[in-house]
Design a protein that fits this description.
The model is unreliable at about 1-15 and about 20-50 (pLDDT under 50). The protein has helices at about 55-65, 70-90, 100-105, 115-120, 135-145, 150-160, 170-180, 190-200, 210-215, 220-225; strands at about 25, 30-35, 100, 130, 170, 210. Helix 7 (about 170-180) packs across helix 8. It has a two-stranded antiparallel sheet with strand order 1-2. A two-stranded antiparallel sheet has the order 3-4. Strands 5-6 form a two-stranded antiparallel ribbon. By secondary structure, it is mainly α.
Length: about 230
């Protein structure tokens, strides 16, 4: 019997939509190994290594989210898509409308079938209420686009998993995410085993939580291409 379980395997094969499914496998013997090489993250500002907290890099990511790195024609297309979605949801078509991440995840063709879609879209809500303003929508369109940067996709993934928004992905964040995605497919003991092995593999300083830098090591090219890519406009 094969059951989906995040980025580890205990005699199971995770489905393609599950984050980290192709990166790590844990055999029934409990031996952890990387299943494939992860391509290096794009650095938007220069060719050096990614540095957390680098002001230039953060500024570049913000510019991408503001829509400053796409053409005027593409920006106008995001506005038209926002207005169309707002009208279909019955919340008006002007720039003051707000789109529900829940409704977007359920209705948009690029989101359906991805169990993380609601949380991915909600992560762009600057109001932190699960709704997207027009500018939030622009940010989502730019980052989640197939041409969006890996750096911003990785930041989005981190925000999706950092449920308590404390700046770390901790054991409880992982547990709650696995529970919400897997339901009763695994026993609590199996979930705890998965979390323990993930922390053992990626928690470099053994503090029982993952920084954004540590978390990025979990992401495979498949994660970037499928879980955190949605062409919304």
């Amino acid at each position: 019997l094969r059951l989906p379980i995040a980025s580890v395997e205990v005699g199971v094969e995770p489905p393609p939509w599950l984050p980290f499914a192709s990166l790590v496998r844990v055999s029934q013997m409990g031996c952890l190994r990387r299943s494939k090489k992860v391509e290096p993250m794009e650095v938007a500002v220069d060719d050096g290594d990614w540095v957390d907290g680098d002001a230039r890099q953060d500024a570049h990511l913000d510019r991408e989210r503001q829509g400053e790195l796409i053409s005027i024609k593409e920006l106008e297309a995001t506005h038209k898509a926002f207005a169309a979605a707002a009208a279909s949801f019955g919340v008006g078509g002007d720039g003051e409308a707000r789109l529900s991440a829940v409704k977007l995840a359920a209705s948009h063709g690029e989101a359906r079938g991805n169990p993380l879609a609601r949380r991915v879209l909600a992560s762009f809500s600057t109001a932190k209420d699960g709704t997207l303003s027009q500018q939030d929508w622009v940010a989502a369109c730019c980052v989640l686009s197939s041409r969006g940067s890996k750096a911003n996709k990785a930041r989005t993934a981190f925000q999706v998993y950092d449920l308590d928004e404390d700046g770390f992905v901790n054991v409880d964040d992982l547990r709650r995410t696995l529970d919400s995605m897997l339901g009763n497919a695994l026993s609590p003991q199996q979930v705890e085993q998965i979390i323990k092995r993930l922390m053992s593999a990626f928690d470099a300083n053994d503090d029982h939580c993952l920084t954004e830098e540590e978390f990025r090591n979990l992401l495979s090219q498949e994660d970037y291409d499928t879980r955190f890519t949605m062409d919304l406009f």
